[in-house]
Write a structure and sequence with these properties.
The chain has one helix at residues 3-17, and strands at residues 21-26, 29-46, 49-61, 74-77, 80-91, 95-101. The chain is mostly beta strands. Strand 1 (21-26) and strand 2 (29-46) form a beta hairpin.
Length: 103
């Protein structure tokens, strides 16, 4: 990828982060993440017991992460401790869409 394209993508990502971003700590790295789908609380009823889970989807530039996270990788999104969901990571041209859920 040329430097001009990389610079243009980084500039667009910086602009988009103004409308909804968070700090994502994953694999020992803290990066800025674009909130694709905000944190959502889900309820689950099993055998008369209520269990609450949370989920979110974030976008991260490929250059910001050293390796692709796999399902079960521990992460932290603005002090919410979470893991990469079984849906895992969707790889796009210049970014990753990371599905996060409560552990």
């Amino acid at each position: 990828m040329s430097n001009a394209i990389a610079t243009a993508i980084k500039a667009q990502f910086e602009f988009a982060k103004r409308n909804g971003s968070s700090s994502l700590t994953i694999q020992g790295a803290t990066v800025d993440a674009l909130i694709v789908e905000p944190i959502e609380n889900l309820g689950d009823q099993r055998r008369g017991r209520q269990r609450g889970t949370r989920k979110a989807i974030v976008g991260v530039l490929k250059n910001d992460l050293p390796t692709v996270p796999v399902a079960g990788t521990r992460a932290s999104l603005d002090n919410w401790v979470c893991v990469v969901a079984d849906e895992g990571v969707e790889e796009e041209a210049f970014a990753y869409r990371i599905h996060l859920v409560s552990p």
